[in-house]
UniProtKB/TrEMBL annotation:
The organism's place on the tree of life at top rank: Bacteria
SUPFAM superfamilies per UniProt: GST C-terminal domain-like, Thioredoxin-like
PANTHER family, per the entry: GLUTATHIONE S-TRANSFERASE TCHQD
Listed name of the protein: Glutathione S-transferase
UniProt-listed PROSITE patterns: GST_NTER
Domain GST N-terminal: 1-80
Length: 214
């Protein structure tokens, strides 16, 4: 199996966490969409030009992180069960996975972009929405060890990359329950592996920039 991804892309991080949780052996292919050659190679594999892209043994490709994880959970018996077998539990896991992807993830991108813009009023509106979403998760985590209960699930795979993106921008530890959750998440093997790859990629990027200016 092959994964085409970028370590700094949150949907790629979500997929990587799941792959490590499932203890899946795969071939990693880092794709830099800012590089024309790299982007052209991806287009030859998938017209959608979306990351992550996952190739299974049959030669089929999946280009949506949640679908990739659902495939892994259905066909890989090792590691963590990321979508509960019990239907009502699975429903909540999918609900919070969608909330992360469709609301939280998008709001983070819009807020970060708006803070660089001259429209500070819009940035404040987005920040208010972002803090409201985090409060919702904080309240939920008051009653749950992980997002959807005692077990690590797809919802956590989606939520953790969002927190990583906000780590240097908000005081996550000011949220009592999110703070506890974030500390325990970073101690989990799958998450620490992804964070290590993020930090290595950022360090290499900084070194490349320094060489370019010397």
């Amino acid at each position: 199996m092959d994964l085409y991804y970028h370590p700094l892309a949150r949907q790629s991080q979500k997929t990587l966490i799941a792959l490590y949780e499932k203890q899946v052996s795969f071939y990693p292919h880092i794709i830099d969409l800012n590089n024309p050659f790299s982007r052209r190679n991806l287009q030859q594999l998938s017209p959608s030009n979306q990351l992550p892209l996952f190739r299974i043994q049959t030669g089929e490709y999946f280009s949506d992180a949640s679908i990739i994880i659902e495939y892994l959970d259905n066909y890989i018996s090792s590691g963590t069960q990321l979508i509960p077998i019990e239907k009502s539990q699975a429903l909540y896991v999918r609900l919070y996975d969608r909330l992360c992807d469709n609301e939280l993830d998008k709001t983070i991108d819009d807020w970060i972009a708006a803070t660089k813009d001259v429209n500070q009023l819009y940035a404040k509106q987005l920040e208010k929405k972002l803090l409201s979403l985090l409060t919702r998760f904080d309240q939920r985590l008051a009653e749950h060890h992980w997002v959807c209960g005692d077990s690590f699930t797809l919802a956590d795979c989606a939520f953790i990359p969002c927190l990583k993106a906000l780590e240097d921008k908000l005081h996550l530890l000011d949220y009592q329950n999110i703070g506890r959750y974030w500390i325990q998440s970073k101690l989990r093997g799958s998450v620490s592996q992804v964070i290590e790859e993020i930090e290595l990629t950022l360090a290499n990027h900084d070194q490349s920039e320094q060489r370019a200016h010397t």
